[in-house]
TrEMBL record:
Classification via Gene3D superfamilies: Calcium-transporting ATPase, cytoplasmic domain N, Calcium-transporting ATPase, cytoplasmic transduction domain A, Calcium-transporting ATPase, transmembrane domain, HAD superfamily/HAD-like
PANTHER family the record matches: CALCIUM-TRANSPORTING ATPASE (PTHR42861)
Claim: Transmembrane helix is one of the keywords in the record: yes
Protein name: HAD-IC family P-type ATPase
Location of this chain's protein in the cell: Membrane
Membrane topology: Multi-pass membrane protein
Pfam families xrefs: E1-E2_ATPase, Hydrolase
Record-annotated membrane-spanning stretches: 44-62, 68-85, 219-237, 249-270, 606-629, 635-653, 665-690, 761-783, 795-815
Length: 831
């Protein structure tokens, strides 16, 4: 802990107690997720549920209470499953979120101590150093000077200098320097609290997949509105009774796949919990899906490939005595107002007492050097990157060779130099400027410790199909050497920030694509590299731990931070790796891919079911002027085909990357299955309708005239025939929906057509178990009557089963020969 300025004593503990009692404490809780009421409300009071509620009231008024029970079951099942899972996810995530809550360094009774931000009171004096978040509003006191990033508040990325008397705001963070500030506005009075009262809470951010699903739901809602309008018109004209019309409206409302959205919500809630079990905290709701799309992973070397622990290995003097140089280095490190890992390594190797300082330039990742001028000695000492210091002082061939040789061995190399004078160290814009009179004093070599799991982790990245790029502030040769030690190939291309600075936009973007190692990179260049990769169509994740990584983390599609990183880095990251578990990251990628693939699979099942229903309703309505489904029969099809199976499909999904190539594999599966299942269902319905109205076949065979047909058919005959036909079509829909499961994940080559071979028998077993459940419903009279299904002959069921088998062969033939793809002029890559 650094020494506190003697003139800043801060509040006493008794003053703190009095101010807290007076209500001047920073007691506003930070809400990390939704409340229990929010979860319950968002799942229960939805648009579709309100429509079901209204229809239920109408059905109760018409004496159809049993239909209301079915509607209530559908609604409550969705609500209960999602509420339970989201509450479990909330409890898990809230517990883990407490770990990353920022701390505050406060001065009380002249002693610096670390406290929770909620313990701050008005008048507290707080210490802030590079990477620290400013947690309350206040003003700088004392002689310190800092540069802060207020982009989280203003959207501007320029660094703002702050010195005595300047205001600082909660939500910003310190980038360089060190200073104290006095708390003036705390709790709800702070600027950040006023600006982000809602932003700090759980935000329901729709992911790209959810946007596509929402578009699909809106389109289906439009179809449902048209069908509903026709139904209302039929009721108005007296063609359909009010009771039947309301039942038809309930079925039409059920065509809107709100259950699909619920299943997606459930999948991502479970995914967030599973990622938490990998020692990672999901801070943004879209991170689970975003991580599954990543194809380029950008790493900062320090703290990711390495353990963030370095040690000073060698000091080579240049024109100076070894002992004198080591004394200067020890004094330099001990006297710096702010420290970092490099400084700590020097202190550990060369401990010295602090000396009075008359001028100082703190280290900054943008300029990559620091400077100290002692009050009791002339001149200025500068410690920084050799290639930066080399721009203003000559380096001999021997010195340059020594630097390259150390970098090739993966060592971090710095130089210390001396200027006999202390010129103006800042330009007109307030940026640090190197003295022009520098003379080299020595070369320092530091060793980085590779993470023991770095090689295995990089291998898993490659197996997941993810490119790795290392972006660092260190020498590119050093970074490349360490990357090779960690398992990257020997033919990697390394480039420096100085080279990038000379490139135009086109060359810069191409270099970002082709190169693997980027060294001596400034924070702005890191963000630009990420942006360039995005412009080339990549989905980019950025991982870092320092304040210099904040810009690139915010630019990336997915930002990943280490728990041990700066408060600012953790604050802007989408995912925080708890306990710095770098090895967990490939598992998180695979988990995201697994979730996305599962959602894609259940979407296929939903689309086939919904569109086959719609086509059947339209076609049968046009032919027979009747509605082919009731509430209970449509519910049983929905529950058995897209109610039970999607839950297991989501759980069993595998983290394979989506198939590449041309065409749309989703439509390749859905369209043939939808059209052929619709045709089979319509033909089944019409056949059983005609068969159970006796005179119809006599008329079709020409044995009776059409006028005689009209006289022989009664309303009772038509109602009985429609019910039998409806049962037959429901059976066909159930069989077709369940046969889609082995087609979705083919257990043997015989099932391959719409999807590649998986050899996973669980889906086939699930389909068999669900089919057994439907057979039980048909076999038990009470269940059959409740769901308003007719009892068919065994030969009828056998015939429907044969049609289902024939349908499976036809749709497989269409898939395997890409007949519909050819008709639509699309191409699907072979499996």
């Amino acid at each position: 802990m650094q020494t506190v300025p003697t003139h800043l004593q801060g509040l006493s503990h008794s003053e703190v107690a009095k101010r807290r009692a007076a209500g001047q404490g920073n007691d506003v809780p930070i809400q990390t997720s939704r409340t229990y009421w929010d979860i319950f409300r968002d799942n229960l009071f939805t648009f579709i549920n309100w429509v079901y509620f209204f229809l239920s009231l109408v059905l109760i008024a018409l004496g159809r209470a049993s239909d209301v029970l079915v509607l209530a079951f559908v609604v409550l099942l969705n609500v209960v499953i999602n509420v339970i899972q989201e509450i479990r996810a909330k409890q898990k995530l809230d517990k883990i979120a407490l770990i990353t809550r920022p701390k505050a360094s406060v001065i009380r009774d002249g002693q610096e101590q670390e406290i929770d931000p909620s313990e701050i009171v008005v008048g507290d004096v707080l210490m802030v150093r590079p990477g620290d978040q400013i947690v309350v509003d206040g003003s700088i006191v004392g002689e310190g000077e800092i540069k802060v990033d207020e982009s989280l508040l203003t959207g501007e990325s320029d660094l703002i200098p702050k010195q005595s008397g300047n205001l600082v705001y909660s939500g910003s963070f310190c980038v360089s320097g060190a200073a104290c500030y006095e708390a003036e506005k705390v709790g709800a009075e702070s600027l950040a609290s006023k600006m982000t009262a809602e932003a700090r809470k759980f935000r329901k951010v729709l992911t790209p997949l959810q946007h596509r699903i929402n578009l699909m739901i809106r389109l289906l809602l439009g179809v449902a509105i048209v069908l509903g309008f026709v139904t209302v018109l039929r009721m108005t004209l007296g063609v359909t009774s009010i009771t039947t019309g309301v039942q038809n409206l309930a079925v039409i409302v059920g065509l809107v796949p709100i259950g699909l959205y619920f299943m997606i919500t459930l999948a991502y809630a479970l995914g967030a919990v599973r990622i938490a079990e990998q020692s990672a905290l999901v801070q943004q709701s879209n991170a689970v899906e975003s991580i599954s799309n990543v194809d380029v992973m950008c790493l900062d070397k320090t703290g990711t490939l390495t353990t963030n622990r370095i040690n000073l290995q060698t000091v080579y003097p240049i024109g100076i005595d070894q002992a004198k140089l080591e004394a200067i280095l020890g004094d330099f490190a001990a006297s710096a107002s702010t420290s970092n890992k490099t400084n700590d390594a020097i202190i550990a190797a060369l401990p010295r007492a602090k000396r009075p300082v008359k001028v100082e330039v703190p280290f900054g990742s943008a300029h990559k050097w620091s400077a100290v001028g002692f009050a009791d000695a002339p001149g200025l000492y500068v410690l920084g990157a050799p290639e930066i210091l080399g721009t203003v002082m000559p380096l001999s061939a021997e010195q340059q060779a020594s630097i390259r040789e150390a970098a090739d061995r993966g060592l971090r190399v710095l130089m210390i130099a001396h200027s006999p004078t202390v010129p103006d160290l800042y330009d007109g814009a307030g940026d640090p400027v190197l003295p022009a009179t520098l003379q080299p004093l020595g070369i320092l070599q530091f060793g980085d410790e590779l993470r023991p799991d770095a090689r295995q982790t990089l291998t898993e990245f490659q197996q997941a199909g993810i490119q790795v790029k290392v972006i660092s502030g260190d020498n590119p040769l050093t970074v490349a050497a360490l990357a090779k030690q960690a398992g990257l190939s020997d033919d990697i291309i390394a480039v420096s920030g100085q080279e990038l600075a000379q490139m135009d936009d086109a060359v810069f973007t191409q270099t970002a694509e082709d190169s693997t190692i980027f060294g001596r990179i400034t924070p702005e260049q890191k963000a630009r590299l990420v942006q360039s990769l995005q412009l080339r169509g990549h989905y980019v994740a950025m991982m870092g731990d320092g304040v210099n990584d904040v810009l690139s983390l915010k630019q990336a599609n997915v930002g990943v931070a280490m728990e041990s990183g700066s408060q600012a880095t953790r604050g802007v990251a989408d995912i925080v790796l708890l306990k710095d578990t770098f090895s967990a990251l490939p598992k998180i990628f695979l988990e995201g891919q697994r979730i996305r693939n599962g959602v894609a699979d259940i979407s296929k099942l939903f689309m086939v079911r919904i569109f086959s229903f719609i086509l059947a309703i339209i076609a049968i309505g046009m032919i027979t002027l009747s509605f082919p489904f009731g509430i209970k029969t449509s519910t049983i099809v929905t529950f058995l085909t897209v109610g039970i199976p999607p839950f297991f499909v989501t759980l069993w999904a595998k983290p394979d990357k989506p198939r590449g190539g041309q065409g749309n594999p989703f439509m390749h599966f859905v369209l043939p299955a939808m059209f052929t299942l619709s045709i089979a269902s319509i033909l089944i319905y019409l056949f059983f309708l005609a068969e159970n109205i006796g005179p119809v076949f006599d008329w079709l065979n020409g044995r009776i005239p059409f006028e005689e047909l009209g006289r022989r058919i009664t309303r009772a005959d038509i109602a009985r025939a429609q019910r039998v036909a409806e049962t037959a079509m429901v059976t066909m829909q159930v069989l077709g929906g369940l046969l889609l499961l082995p087609f979705l994940k083919p257990p043997t080559p015989a099932w391959v057509g719409g999807e590649p071979l998986s050899r996973d028998w669980r889906y086939t077993i699930l389909a068999s178990l669900v089919l057994a459940g439907y057979i039980v419903i048909l076999a038990v009279p009470a269940l059959r009557r409740f769901f308003e299904l007719s009892q068919l002959d065994f030969t009828d069921y056998l015939g429907i089963g044969l049609v289902a088998v024939l349908w499976a062969l036809v749709v497989r033939f269409v898939w395997r020969n890409s007949l519909l793809d050819r008709f639509l002029d699309t191409k699907i890559s072979p499996f």
